[in-house]
TrEMBL record:
Organism the protein comes from: Streptomyces orinoci (Streptoverticillium orinoci)
Residues recorded as bearing 4-aspartylphosphate in the entry: 57
Residue range(s) of DNA binding per entry: 134-232
All residue ranges annotated as the OmpR/PhoB-type domain in the record: 134-232
Chain ranges of the Response regulatory domain: 8-121
Protein name (record): Response regulator transcription factor
Classification via Pfam families: Response_reg (PF00072), Trans_reg_C (PF00486)
InterPro entries, sorted: CheY-like_superfamily, OmpR/PhoB-type_DNA-bd, Sig_transdc_resp-reg_C-effctor, Sig_transdc_resp-reg_receiver, WalR-like, WH-like_DNA-bd_sf
Top-level taxon of the source organism: Bacteria
SUPFAM superfamilies assigned to the protein according to its UniProt record, in alphabetical order: C-terminal effector domain of the bipartite response regulators, CheY-like
Alphabetical keyword list: DNA-binding, Phosphoprotein, Transcription, Transcription regulation
Amino acid sequence: MPTEVPARVLVVDDDPTVSEVVAGYLGRAGFAVERAADGPTALRLAADVRPDLVLLDLMLPGMDGLEVCRTLRAAGPVPVIMLTARGDEEDRILGLEVGADDYVTKPFSPRELVLRAEAVLRRARALSAAPAPAPPLRAAGLVLDPVARLAGRDGTELALTVREFDLLAHLMRHPGRAFGREQLMREVWGWEFGDLSTVTVHVRRLRAKIEDDPARPRLIHTVWGVGYRFDAAGTDVTRTPEAGDDA
């Protein structure tokens, strides 16, 4: 029986203590780990070893993590988890905009990081192993092609990140159905736990890209006490903002 090849993870962090601890936990979890302390080294290693996942610190000397992420995603669809010491939402949004699949704020639990890495890899493998071509999704002027991973609205292409695309596709597949943030985290992100603000940030970003007026959304509605619902008809409704929803 052939031995399963371990997933390759590239850890990019200029703090040797963080890098060593993270690499140790990943190694014990069965991953093959490469390490880099700066952006150019990370890009060179990524080209050589072609990792299945990159754990990428935002604050790097010379070339920051955002630029490294842009370059990585331009070269291919490798999943990226951003590691950041900053708690500001703007930094998280920037990471998501350049294509990061997830972010983890320092200080973090290495065990949680390993679980996040496993969840992102499961999601990436499920997408790449999709058995049958899915037909395009169409509603309210939106068109999503799950095979080509292209999205458009009224004939104009939408620049969606990987997770924005997945979230919108999930909502469009279930028009009129309300989803809680915990449920979306499980069904779109594949996580059983995590920072629920991840879902909130992605919904806000989607509204900014698909709504005529993000302050009065006609497509992705907030459902009081539940979460979010996609309205295929694109009709406006009066909504009551829920706690923590400032979009």
